[in-house]
Amino acid sequence: MVGGSRPDVAVVGGGPIGLAVAWRCAARGLRVSLYDATPGSGASDVAAGMLAPVAESYFGERVLTGLLVESAGRWPGFAAELAEYTGLDLGYRTEGTLTVALTSDDLAEAERLWTYQRNLGLPVTPLRPAELRDREPLLTTRLRGGALAPGDHQVDPRRLVAALRVAVERAGVTLVSRPVRQLAELDAAVTVVAAGCGTAALTGLPVRPVKGQILRLRAPRGATPGFRHVIRGHADGRHVYLVPRTDGEVVVGATVEERADLDVTAGAVLDLLRSATDVIPDLAEYELVEARSGLRPGTPDNVPLLGPLPGRPEVVVATGHFRHGIVLTPLTADLVADLLATGVPDPALAPLSPARFGAPVPLSPAWFGAPVPPGRPGRPGAVGGAMPAARPAGAGSVGGSAPGGEPGPGGESGPGGESGSGVGAVGGSGPGGESGSGVGAVGGPVPGGESGPDDGTSRVGRTRWS
């Protein structure tokens, strides 16, 4: 597909997605240049790193569930290969994820979702309060119930980025430390845009910023956290996740706000800490070491944009991973690298094509500095034109059409995935997302109902999974 005297591939964006694409392309014999002023300073630097396709499987997201399951299945091999190639520890952990509910209403909401997930064939096992506390004694005594997702894992995104940077350098990728503000600046046979929220200004595609605020705590006296599993809590109508690291850190997240500012607010910190300590009271004694915000790159249907830009086959887009950038890194890198190396698109790319939203609409840079216009939650209009409408209920999924179904709680996970926010320049900060292992594969239909798009009205303290 590529060749000549110029570089074969120019990758715009140095987050996990862009770095992994560059690494996989170089491994296939392509000459690659990667452009980013500050690689790894965007979404991944704020990310929690949950790899959780079971806990992240929600009503109305059948296409996305298929992607999460397929990519999660690639994570063990991807992590082992990257660790061996670089000699670096990624912080990849496989203890699994516990979801817990504190009230009767919390439990009813959670059980409805677990039933849906089990109907998809995903491994989730309901547990009684005593069984939960047997696994994690620090959990509150207020528990009404919970569930175990043993295949929902985690990785440390900051370590992941560090390893990927070493990998691309060893593979011969040329790193260019500058932002890209127009694709015309680049001289390569093919350009891959993996610039997170910056993709909108570069391509005109409907990628919107979704703000997330996240905290990092540290266990007292240099100890490791007193729990091993990732904990996802339904806490009096609020949702929180707790991700323990072996170095003593605990990531607490996250808000989901249809805004584009990066302010860290007192209300968000208060609500996240309240929910965290409701689930594990001992966290009140941990040190608060970091409070950050960033921007997830969302699309109108919450499904990534992967494939050629309409009308410009020399530009391939790999963005819009929203809250799932970390878990989708292996699959995205393989799909894009195979496309560039062979010229043959994988059938899994069909429902992810940027062409599903029509011709790109040029966006004004001013759009990235303002909150969602009134009356348009979830899909802010671009300056000069509205974003394409999201997919209606009952839209097709990977491998076939989806019957209509019931709407359910939206699912957002911690910041992570793609680098870049702001006015077309790669390197802004912003949370993206995570998910992990499971069963099934892209290409086969996932049973279950489909609903319309999330209305995007999440509030701090009343967020869905984030």
From TrEMBL:
Pfam families on file: DAO (PF01266)
UniProt KW keywords: Oxidoreductase, Thiamine biosynthesis
Amino acid composition bias (Gly residues), ranges on this chain: 396-451
Keyword Oxidoreductase on entry: yes
Pathway info: Cofactor biosynthesis; thiamine diphosphate biosynthesis
Low complexity bias: start-end ranges: 385-395
Enzyme class: oxidoreductase
Ranges for domain FAD dependent oxidoreductase: 8-339
Coiled coil: none
InterPro entries reported in the protein's UniProt record: FAD-dep_OxRdtase, FAD/NAD-bd_sf, Gly_oxidase_ThiO
UniProt catalytic activity: glycine + O2 + H2O = glyoxylate + H2O2 + NH4(+)
NCBIfam families documented for this protein: thiamin_ThiO
PANTHER family: GLYCINE OXIDASE, SARCOSINE DEHYDROGENASE-RELATED
Name under which the protein is recorded: glycine oxidase
